[in-house]
Amino acid sequence: MTKVKICGLQELEHVRAASTADAAGFVFAPSRRRISIEQAAALAAELPESVEKIGVFVNAGLDEVLEAVQKVPLSMVQLHGDETDDFIRSIPVKVVQAFSVRDIEDVKKLERSIADFVLVDAPGIDFRGGSGRTFDWSLLGGASIDPERLIVAGGLDAVNVGQAINSLAPYMVDVSSGVETEGNKDADKIKIFIKTVKGDSMQQTTGTVKETGFFGRFGGQFVPETLMKAVKELEAAYTEAKDDADFQADYHKYLKEYVGREQPLTYAARLTEAWGGPKVYLKREDLNHTGAHKINNAIGQALLAIRMGKRKIVAETGAGQHGVATATICALLDLECVVFMGEEDIRRQQLNVFRMKLLGAKVESVTKGSATLKDAVNEALRYWVTNVEDTHYLIGSALGPHPFPTMVRDFQSVIGRETREQILDKEGRLPDVILACVGGGSNAIGMFHPFVEDESVRLIGVEAAGEGVDTARHAATLTKGTEGVLHGAYMKLLQDENGQVQEAHSISAGLDYPGVGPEHVHLEDIGRVEYKAVTDEEALASVIKLSRLEGIIPALESAHAVAEAEKTAAAMGSDEILIICVSGRGDKDMATYAEKLEGLA
Ligand SMILES: O=C(O)c1ccccc1N[C@@H]1O[C@H](COP(=O)(O)O)[C@@H](O)[C@H]1O
């Protein structure tokens, strides 16, 4: 099992919290975490003998290192400076040599290390280490280093450590900033980190939940132990609620009286004429209160949270539609609401940011990674880990650990159920083709689910091809992704050969997620649903078409489904029926349309 080191300890309370770790680090180098040899000795005395006591130095004199080894006493020494091989040989205990990894040249250097262990870290900012930043783990892909000598550090925390272990299989993981709050060590975070790695790492969880929440081979509950209780509690609460007539009545009352359901299935006469093929119908999720399908799910989960006695909600948002839906429901039901949103998405979707604030939600800007949806999910998960007792994570798509993908699908299935009844009513038969856009995949799974058993109905999910699926800038997870774990579920995702999650791109903030809901991956796997990809440019052209032909300005996400529908319709006859799910309206995208569409129009 991977060992854990908690570094930068300065106070007794935190030393105690770290007593179940395998190693404790004391920083003697220039740092805000620096302590004296005497202080380290007093703290080390409180630790069990089995815990390694590691001193961190940067270009210190040999006398200082030897004094610390003897007085603390230290069982290992960690060197972050430019220490020579002779210096390393002079140290009477095991030595960890740290390397900042920026490029392949750094990897070559660490391969030559004579130290007992090699520690890989991100380059420091103010000091030689402890910056809280991750480095590109894939650089170690071809490195000739025995994993039994490898210690991984740099920006680790309870959320990403599972992925670090899965990618690099190191001897030990080392954390400092990731177990701090506002620059100080946090006893809860220390315990959570240790438990995540030792008690129930992502790898170990696999075995325990094989039976639960899988769609074929996909899904599951790949979460740290610290979230397992909350996930199980949610699973139990949802299992009970979904069969409870009162809960269902309440949920449907809000859908009718607050969201404004049922939404029409509009016959698109001019689009039908322009495409010259099948009869085209539009399922009008754009008419929902708050402007998109997201509210169907937000209401269901908020009611469930209240049923579980949780009155605080955390959510992530990409385009802002889920954030607005969540903030809306929280205002309505008097729940506290925090929404994490990538800085890049905040820039693209300012109107929705203001809406959320106006509704009383706190919007937290996420600057890590690509500062988009996946990073917002990471931060929301982190927040949930530390506030799990009184907070429900109201996830916005059919993603995450079981029961989220099933639960979100069920709450969104109102789309497909209404559509089914409406088309039978209007045409007396089922449609030939249904299309919906897929980011995480919630409007699509809600639309498809009631038709999955109807083999005559062709189901097409449409992903974002961004600037093209053969470029590096797309979000076509099902088309180009490979299998792996992301945000608690086994799915398909955009990752490199070392399991590093890649950045997804789409002009549409709601589609640029590098994974996809596990049920979609299963439906593709068994050949029930086809998945296609549409570029930014094609989606923009469809915005113009739908606006001019039907007087409906779609959201950028929905425009992807319209673009693919046009291609599909070209091969269909006039006796056939095609339905497009218009998942949301374009108000939120108006700034992008104003910027991009002048030339095209
Ligand atoms: O923690 C410090 O302040 C520090 C200062 C100088 C050298 C190393 C230091 N700490 C080491 O840095 C890495 C990564 O820490 P983080 O989790 O990214 O904050 C770790 O090995 C610490 O031992």
Automatic annotation (TrEMBL):
Q: What GO cellular component entries does it have?
A: cytoplasm
The N6-(pyridoxal phosphate)lysine modification is found at K294
- Alphabetically list the UniProt keywords: Amino-acid biosynthesis, Aromatic amino acid biosynthesis, Isomerase, Lyase, Pyridoxal phosphate, Tryptophan biosynthesis
Could you confirm whether the keyword Lyase appears in this record?
A: yes
Which superkingdom? Bacteria
The cofactor(s) it depends on are: pyridoxal 5'-phosphate
The Tryptophan synthase beta chain-like PALP domain is annotated at 261-580
E.C. designation(s): 5.3.1.24, 4.2.1.20
Q: List the catalytic activities from the record.
A: N-(5-phospho-beta-D-ribosyl)anthranilate = 1-(2-carboxyphenylamino)-1-deoxy-D-ribulose 5-phosphate; (1S,2R)-1-C-(indol-3-yl)glycerol 3-phosphate + L-serine = D-glyceraldehyde 3-phosphate + L-tryptophan + H2O
Q: Which GO terms describe its molecular function?
A: phosphoribosylanthranilate isomerase activity; tryptophan synthase activity
Pathway assignment reads: Amino-acid biosynthesis; L-tryptophan biosynthesis; L-tryptophan from chorismate: step 5/5; Amino-acid biosynthesis; L-tryptophan biosynthesis; L-tryptophan from chorismate: step 3/5
Start and end residues of each N-(5'phosphoribosyl) anthranilate isomerase (PRAI) domain: 4-195
SUPFAM superfamilies from the entry?
A: Ribulose-phoshate binding barrel (SSF51366), Tryptophan synthase beta subunit-like PLP-dependent enzymes (SSF53686)
**What's the stated role of this polypeptide?**
The beta subunit is responsible for the synthesis of L-tryptophan from indole and L-serine.
Quaternary structure annotation from Swiss-Prot or TrEMBL? Tetramer of two alpha and two beta chains.
Tell me the protein family, please: Belongs to the TrpF family.
Q: What is this protein called?
A: Multifunctional fusion protein
